[in-house]
Design brief:
Blueprint (H helix, E strand, L loop, with lengths): L6 H11 L4 H8 L3 H9 L6 H11 L3 H4 L14 E3 L2 E5 L8 E7 L14 E8 L1 E6 L2 E6 L3 E5 L4 E5 L5 E7 L1 H9 L10 H6 L6
Antiparallel strand pairs: 1-2, 2-3, 3-9, 4-7, 4-9, 5-6, 5-8
Helix pairs in contact: 1-3
Length: 202
């Protein structure tokens, strides 16, 4: 088992973490110095008979020495386009907080204002981001960040002739509104509503 391959390394780390020499641990456990040394170097196969007195002396459990292999930390998946935006997931599926890199294309009207539960945090990587937040119109540039209550009507788009690249962090409700529903267009908006970033009912 792969989990057993690092047992000796973990055993040595616990011993050193308790400032014990091989001689001191041998005296506590009645396991010879040479046996302990071979266990730590992986040259001696571990047995329950050997590990029980050692783990008791170190104040740890057997499961501390035999840990499951760490899962692959890489986030897989390709970027997708939604209503002109390029959206790349940066957090694994099922995370309580979702992180995305979103590229807003230039030359687009500000989309309709949205409202949902939660908070959003964003950081501008490049370009200029227009943020409509309630009655406020803000422009954020490279290196600027913002955090806001998403129960306030809000909308975002690139400002100027260059795309705006943004890191956005939000909860499940924010993910649904900003990525899954981003395909909704503004076709049902009047020209005046598109200009103001509002829907006809607002």
């Amino acid at each position: 088992m792969d989990e057993l391959a690092h047992l000796g390394e973990r055993l040595r780390a616990y011993r050193l973490g308790r400032d014990l020499t091989l001689e001191q641990l041998a005296a506590r456990t009645a396991v010879s110095i040479s046996t302990l040394s071979r266990l730590e170097s992986g040259k001696r196969q571990a047995s329950l008979e050997l590990l029980l007195p050692i783990t008791r002396s170190l104040g740890i459990g057997l499961d501390d020495l035999i840990r499951p292999q760490a899962p692959d930390p890489r986030v897989t998946g390709t970027a997708v386009r939604r209503d002109g935006m390029l959206i790349a997931r940066l957090s694994p599926e099922g995370s309580p907080v979702q992180t995305y890199k979103i590229t807003y294309p230039p030359g687009r009207e500000l989309p309709r204002l949205r409202v949902h539960d939660g908070y959003e945090w964003l950081y501008v990587l490049s370009g200029r981001l227009r943020l409509r937040l309630g009655e406020r119109n803000l422009v954020l540039t490279h290196g600027e960040a913002a955090e806001f209550d998403t129960r306030i009507p809000h909308a975002m788009s690139a400002d100027g002739r260059r795309p705006a690249q943004v890191i956005s962090i939000f909860n499940d409700a924010g993910e649904r509104m900003h990525t899954r529903l981003a395909q909704e267009t503004t076709e049902d908006q009047t020209p005046e509503a598109q200009k103001n970033g509002t829907t006809p009912s607002e």
